[in-house]
Amino acid sequence: MSVEVPTISSGGISAGISQLGAELQFLRDGHGRDLLWDGDPAVWHGRAPILFPVIGLLEGGCYRLDGQRYAMPKHGFARHSTFDIIDQAADAVTFRLSASEQTRAVYPFAFQLDIQFCVSATQLRVTADIANFGDVPMPASFGFHPALRWPLPFDQPRAMHTIRFAQDEPAPIRRINADGFLLPDPQPTPVSGDTLVLRDDLFVADAVIFDRLNSRSASYGPPVGPRLAIDFADFPTLGVWTKPGADFLCIEPWQGFADPVGYAGDLRDKPGILEIAAGSSKRLAMSLTLTT
Fold it and tell me: How far apart are CA 291 and CA 211, in angstroms?
């Protein structure tokens, strides 16, 4: 099966999205400048993977559910799955992943995951609709993982880039250990007031995880010139990550996170899990807006 990469444009911003993983492949401003990482496999092959139905790693590579054990790769299977294109226009495209024999072997639910990408003026909005067509509640995690250029292509130095939150963020952060599991003890925040000054040494211990945020929006970029505003109103957690020295920064709205160290409970009881009632659905959206 060939994989299509539909493109959408508003004139002020354009995007290309692959059927494989419903993953954003490029995001460009009206002058054709790339805002998204190019997925160089020598550094990190991702660009903007969709995280579903888990985020991060599971202890032993498995989760427990209603007395059974199921294997699941890091960040789930959606990013490795080919989605169907169910609707397409010049400024929007919608992808769908439905439950199959293969997904039920690792995730025994009658789910449907629709991801819509829509552009307007200088904004890209991405909306996920997660439906449970089964007759029992469905536990899941979901996350966006866009890798933005660091520095952005506006002739400002990398060292000047910051994340500025909508409100002050004094709460402690969370970290994962060297094996990728959530540590129990919060750590002091690197945010000063509402501003996170970006430095490579922040990410030597992997992602900076904000799970007690006051804000549901932030902006990223240098103090002079355009910035990217990120709105994540539906998400309680934000991960920020790069490989030290790499030319990308991932700003990741999450519903859920990796297993806590030593976690041996049921998936339904895992911290951060979203449970979708039988016959119900949940919508989670984020947007990226280029501001001047």
Answer: 26
- Neighbouring C-beta atoms of residue 229, cutoff 10 Å: 18
DSSP for 210-273 reads: ESS-S-SEEEEE-SSS-EEEEE-TT-SEEEEE--TT-SEEEEEEEES-SPBTT--SBGGGSTT-
- Rounded to whole angstroms, how far apart are CA atoms 96 and 113? 6
Residue-wise pLDDT for 28-65, tens only, equals: 999 999 999 999 999 999 999 999 999 999 999 999 99
What domains can you pick out in the chain, each with its CATH number? 7-291 (2.70.98.10)
Can you tell me whether residue 287 is helix, strand or coil? strand
- Rounded Cα distance between 289 and 169, Å, is 22
Alpha-helix runs per DSSP H in the chain: 101-104
More confident residue, 222 or 292: 222
Residue 277: DSSP 8-state:
P
Give the integer Cα–Cα distance in Å for 270 and 256.
Answer: 9
Q: Number of C-alpha atoms within 13 angstroms, CB side, residue 42?
A: 2
Residue pair 279/138 in contact by the 8 Å Cβ criterion:
no
